[in-house]
Amino acid sequence: MQGKGASRQALLKYMMQNFSLGQDESSVNTHLKSALKHGLEKGDLQNTTGKGVVGNIRLLKAKTTKAAKKPAPAAKKPKNKDKVEEAIKKHPTPWPPRSWQEPTPPWNQDKKGAKKPAKNATASKAKAAAAAKAKAKKQAAAAKAKAAAAAKVKKPAKKRKNPVK
Fold first, then answer.
1. Dist CA 92 CA 86 (whole Å)
2. What pLDDT is stored for residue 56 in this prediction?
3. Quick one: which of 12, 100, 127, 130 has the most CB atoms within 10 Å?
4. Domain ranges of the chain
5. How far apart are CA 62 and CA 68, in angstroms?
6. pTM recorded for the entire structure
């Protein structure tokens, strides 16, 4: 006897009680609707009553195919396993040998004793001058703000007359 299925509301209630999906039931409901709709389109789910995500929905049993039942072929072992092991013992160097590998380009090779090209002296002087100029400008602005604050004299607050004597 096949089951009648479950409604979307029953599925939502079960999921909210048994899984940590957060407190926002409306967002979980939205995701559940889209998942049920996708499952119905794909053929994994079936409506027992109603249309779409309305009504009772049940899970169909997965169809097994012959291709799925076949076990994966085992990895082939080399026929001459002993010879391979002996070759590895004799030649512990990495395979393929370095002589077979592509040579590294000259710009990636570390050359000992090679001098680095000298930096452009005028460019570095110009950068230093620009930095000094910017620093002086900031200091001048700070001094000007400080002088303006010092020049501003606070007036004493007016005394209020007491209306009741």
1. 10
2. 86
3. 12
4. 6-59
5. 12
6. 0.37
